Amino acid sequence: MFENLTNKFEEIFSSLKKAPSLDEKQVDEGLKGIRLALLEADVSLDVVKEFIGRVKPKALGQEIIRSTSPGDMVVKIVYDEIVSFLGDKNSEISLNAVPPVPIMLVGLQGSGKTTTTSKLAKFLEKINKKKVMMASLDVYRPAAQEQLRLLGEQNNIETLPIIEGQLPADICRRALSAANLNGCEVVLFDTAGRTQIDFQMMNEIKQIETIINPAETILVADSLTGQVAANVAKEFKNTVNLSGIILTRADGDGRGGAALSMKYVAEVPIKFLGVGEKIENFEVFHPDRIANRILGMGDIVSLVEKASEDLDQENLKKTEEKLKKGQFSMEDYLSQLRQMKKMGGIEGIMSFLPGVSKIKSQMDQSGIDEKIITQNEAVILSMTKQERENPKIINGSRKKRIANGSGTDIATINKLLKQFKMMSEMMKKMSKGNMKGMADKGIPPELFNQLK
């Protein structure tokens, strides 16, 4: 997410930080680079003009010229303005209404509205501890209602039963009544979309809004569409009482233009990001953390939160006990690899780390990619229990057998054994108190080990 923008900003700030002092020409040159980076990231031209207009007078202020580290001050100014454009603080979803609380999701066809409805439902059940019902109002797209029903069934979320031929307005009334009878506290309404905005769709959404009186009307927009998404947000804002935005496919958006444009254009907060296909690939949108990621500063807070949600706490406790005794086996190493997979693999963890572009460069040079996790897992599974507990006994003939069993070669086995040795040494240090923070937070150190 935001890789292109991050790389450009890191280049610009690296140059500014090298200068002992900054004059107007240097600031202008830096701002020119920032302007170009934003435009290439598909940020709306109006937003770019406004952004540069806010940054420039502050960057040329006397407090910058006199600063001992003017480059760092410019970074701080840019950071503050990005946060301001993204929304200052995260905006929680409003559930302050008499249950069942109606929430309406709107957007164009193909934006991921139905999948997002199920993700939001799961989030509200898990985080807010609310009983949720989902209702599909899309009677036009073939199998749209069936898609939501299946998502509900697969994820144990209650879904309004389908009645063929029923119109959206009648479905709304039936959903509110059913939710009330079933003790549901929130009803999510998945409205119909179109390939583009049209009069009929907007009229239907206004009619639905009148019937259900939603506590929130949230636009679901595809972040990959950049400025188009911002224009769509503006249209919906002019039609309904839009209260928030969910950006989908943010994990595939290397530019970030939609995120930087939409809050400013639509004047409503971005509430969530869809960051993958799985139902749990759904994040609260934190403007300050996103600004950190955009500027290459990383987002360790989100990484720790993700670790605490995704990782098996019982296994972590067992591993911690072993670490205190200075013990670490190949079985523990396998557990670390699997924990990494749960957190999205190397790419998933790396996206939260500071200096992401440098880390990627190191990975490319070392030939490290996602396959290494699966490959190492296969190698360890091809070992006997005795070999996993004591890898020192793995001699030439054993290596050959393991290589054949895992579909790899002797060189791969040697590389894994070397990595395990490095990991074991690191774990011994951790058992003595070093790197304690990483162990406490449950962050798999595998990535850091491989980049040594």
Comma- or semicolon-separated keywords:
single chain; 452 residues; alpha/beta; Four Helix Bundle (Hemerythrin (Met), subunit A); Rossmann fold; 434 Repressor (Amino-terminal Domain); 3 domains; eight-stranded mixed sheet; 23 helices; 59% helix
Residue share in β-strands: 5-15%
Low-confidence stretches: 298-305, 362-367, 434-452
Structural domains: how many: 3
Distance between the termini: 25 Å
Assign an overall shape. Answer: flat
Q: Give the total of beta strands.
A: 8
Q: What structural class is derived from the secondary structure elements?
A: alpha/beta
CATH superfamily of the largest domain: P-loop containing nucleotide triphosphate hydrolases
Which CATH architecture of the largest domain is right?
A: 3-Layer(aba) Sandwich
Rounded mean pLDDT is 78
* CATH topology group of the largest domain: Rossmann fold
Write up what this structure looks like.
The protein is of the alpha/beta class and 452 residues long. It folds into 3 domains: 3-86, Four Helix Bundle (Hemerythrin (Met), subunit A); 101-291, P-loop containing nucleotide triphosphate hydrolases (Rossmann fold, 3-Layer(aba) Sandwich); 302-450, Signal recognition particle, SRP54 subunit, M-domain (434 Repressor (Amino-terminal Domain)). Helix content is 59%, strand content 8%. It is built from 23 helices and 8 strands. It has helices at residues 3-18, 24-40, 45-59, 62-65, 70-86, 113-126, 144-154, 168-181, 199-212, 227-239, 257-266, 287-294, 300-310, 313-324, 330-342, 345-350, 356-366, 371-381, 385-389, 396-406, 410-431, 436-441, 446-450; strands spanning 101-106, 132-136, 158-159, 186-190, 216-222, 244-248, 270-274, 282-284. An 8-stranded mixed β-sheet has the order 3-2-4-1-5-6-7-8, with helices on both faces. Strand 6, helix 11 (257-266) and strand 7 (270-274) form a beta-alpha-beta unit. Helix 3 (45-59) runs antiparallel to helix 5 (70-86) and helix 15 runs antiparallel to helix 18. The longest helix has 22 residues, at 410-431. The two termini are 25 Å apart. Residues 298-305, 362-367 and 434-452 have low confidence and may be disordered.
